[in-house]
Amino acid sequence: MQLGPSELILNPDGSIYHLNLLPEDIAHTIITVGDPDRVYDVSKYFDSIEIKKGKREFITHTGLLNGKKITVISTGIGTDNIDIVLNELDALVNIDFHTRTIKTKKICLDIVRIGTSGAIQADIPIDSYIMSEYAMGFDGLLHFYDSGHIQVPKLPEAFVKHTDWNRSKSTPYVVKYDDSLGAQLMSNRIRLGLTATNIGFYGPQGRKLRLATQDVDLNSKLESFEYNGIKITNLEMETSGIYGLAKLHGHKAVSMNCILANRNTGEFSKNPSKSVDGLIKYTLDKLTS
C-alpha cells in the first residue's frame, strides 16, 4: 500500500519532513540528546563528521568513531518530540521514499539516549549514571498506538494503587529497555533503575513556583513506591516514548541518565557539564569498543 502525501510528508528535496534528513544521512547506531547544543558535545569526539543538518530543534551529525558510523540527533524536550523523531528515524530506514511503500526487509536501529535527570531516591549520588531498565510513562503517548503487547503488566496497576493516582490524568504505562543493548553499555559504573517520564518540568515533577500542584505528596509517593524490589530511581521527560516507539518499530533502545539533581536531598551538581561529558565519553567508548 502506498502512503499518501499527508501520511509520509517529504520536503522538496526528498528528505523527511521534520528532521530534514535523507535515508543515506543516518547510521544504524543513533544517539539522541535533548539539547541541540549537546549534539556538538558528542560529535566533537568523532574521528570525522560526514553529515551536518538541522531544522528547528532537530540537529543531526553523522560521522565515524573508531571505524563505526554513528549519528547523534537532538530531540528537544518531551515525548511529543520523541513521537516525531522516532517515527521519522524509522521511516528513513524502513520506508522506500521513492515508491512511498514500507520495505519488506526491516532494519533494526540501536538507539541510545544520553540525557540529564533528577534522582528521587536519597541514596543516589549527584553526578552518577543510571541506565533505565524500565521506563514508566505519565505522558500518554503510547495509548495512541496499539501497544498493549509491549507494556510491562501489573507494575503500572500497583503504582496507580500506591499513589492513589488521579484518574483524570493519563494512565501510566511501563516499557522495558532492550536487554542486549543494555548489556553492551553496562559496567560497575552504572546503576539500573526505573525511570519516570513526566509530561512537564515543573508541576508534573512536583516543582512549585507560583502554581499549586494537584498532589503535593506526589514525589514522596514516587520515592516510596516499590514493586517486586523495583523502585523509581529518577525523573526525566523522554525515555518512555523512546522505549515504547522503539520496541513497537522493532528497534533496540537504552536510556543513559546523568544525575544532576537529587529531588529528595535538594542537591544539584556543582559541575554539570563535566558530568554529562563523562557520560558521553563512557557511552561512545562502549558503543565503539
From TrEMBL:
Residues 30-264 form the Nucleoside phosphorylase domain. GO terms for molecular function: purine-nucleoside phosphorylase activity; uridine phosphorylase activity. GO terms for biological process: purine nucleoside catabolic process. Its EC number is 2.4.2.3. InterPro entries: Nucleoside_phosphorylase_d, Nucleoside_phosphorylase_sf. One of its GO terms (cellular component) is cytosol. The keyword Transferase applies. Keywords: Glycosyltransferase, Transferase. CDD domains: UP_TbUP-like. The keyword Transferase applies. Coiled coil: none annotated. It catalyses: uridine + phosphate = alpha-D-ribose 1-phosphate + uracil. This is Uridine phosphorylase. It comes from Saonia flava.
